Amino acid sequence: MATVHASWRYSTHADVADCLDCHAKPGLGNEILAHLNGARYVWVKITGVREGEVFRAEIDNSSCLRCHPTTELVSLPTEQSARHGLHGDTDVDCDDCHDNLVHRTFRAIVIKPQISTCIECHEREGITVDADKLATVTQQ
């Protein structure tokens, strides 16, 4: 957990969001569930009893959209807004592309999706991709 916390401290979100801002869906009930999930992590650390996944820190799109509303995303420069507009109408989650935004490796600061992420996803989904056009989009 220390590494996770340290990576957040050096991220773009350190001064604007805490753990629950991202890891709890909006609403009191969801915040309580996030605390229970955190308590499970503490329990495993104290007892050493580890069955299944220790920490489930999913991020729901609704958490991202609290600070990054759809209206903001589609008003980005043309290529970026097109990507957000197209992906927002599908079952693509924000962290499918931006998974290394906050808890990244210390060797690389990754804010924009890497072209390899785009190509792998498009191939996995059976979507034809023009790698040259995609390279232009991801470099902007």
Automatic annotation (TrEMBL):
InterPro entries named in the record: Cyt_c-552/4, Multihaem_cyt_sf, NapC/NirT_cytc_sf
Cleaved signal peptide residues? none
Instruction: State the UniProt keywords alphabetically.
Output: Electron transport, Heme, Iron, Metal-binding, Transport
Write down the superkingdom of origin: Bacteria
Domain Cytochrome c-552/4 positions: 60-98
Q: Which Pfam families match?
A: Cytochrome_C554 (PF13435)
List the GO molecular function terms.
Answer: metal ion binding
- Its recorded name reads Cytochrome c-552/4 domain-containing protein
